[in-house]
Amino acid sequence: MTTMIKKCTRDDLHELQAISIETFTETFKDQNSPEDLQAYLDKAYDLGKLEQELAIPSSSFFFIYSDQEVAGYLKLNTENAQTESMGNDSLEIERIYIKKAFQKYGFGKILMNKAIELAREQNKKNIWLGVWEENDNAIAFYRKKGFVQTGSHSFFMGDDEQVDLILVKPLH
Question: 135: buried, middle or exposed (CB in 10 Å: 19+, 13-18, 0-12)?
């Protein structure tokens, strides 16, 4: 199995939308109403919105491939693109998703290492993310990687207000 990471461009827009919807649905469909899930998908993964996000210089998307197939993706934010005001010395992992068929093969770890590598290249002091308080597998993964909770914020899944934990990893 050959693994490759590629930075997304506007040419990847439709594939980015497809994997975003697929992985988010796989991850959260069982814990949310179909209406709330669909409302979120329609808003967050609208083609126009994704196109705007791809054009922001302080945001980056990356695909991870297993052989020739996209297995997952990563979205990183710096500076004013961060979803919380964490300062210019921080890098945010806004999204890190792996297709169900490719989970447990180390792809999440590879993408996490890519994010940490890029943060270090940019001389960031911290890397951080928000994770749903009920996503136990993700929380365990992040804690294993050295992230600690420093706060929380509200996240809306359609009309349903949920809580995301803010996890930060200092980069020494």
Answer: middle
Q: Which residue has the tokens 């999204």?
A: 95
CA angle, 26 as apex, 45 and 135 as ends, to 5°?
A: 95
Single out the residue of 112, 144, 118, 5 nearest to residue 59, CA to CA.
Answer: 118
**Confidence (pLDDT) at 160:** 86
CATH classification code of 3-125 = 3.40.630.30
pLDDT of residue 159: 84
Active site residue 142: yes
- Residue-range domain boundaries for the chain: 3-125
Q: Which two tokens stand for residue 87?
A: 């300062």
The tens digit of pLDDT for each residue in 60-89 reads 999 999 999 999 999 999 999 999 999 999
What is the DSSP track for 91-124?
EEEEEEEE-GGGTTSSHHHHHHHHHHHHHHHTT-
Using alpha carbons only, what angle is made at residue 73 by residues 90 and 3, rounded to the nearest 5 degrees? 110
- Tokens at residue 65, please? 């491939």
CA gap 111, 125 in Å, rounded:
19
Amino acid at 157: M
And the tokens for 126?
A: 């911290």
What's the mean pLDDT when you consider all of the chain? 94
In a 13 Å sphere around the CA of 31, the CA atoms on its Cβ side amount to: 14
The predicted model scores a pTM of: 0.93
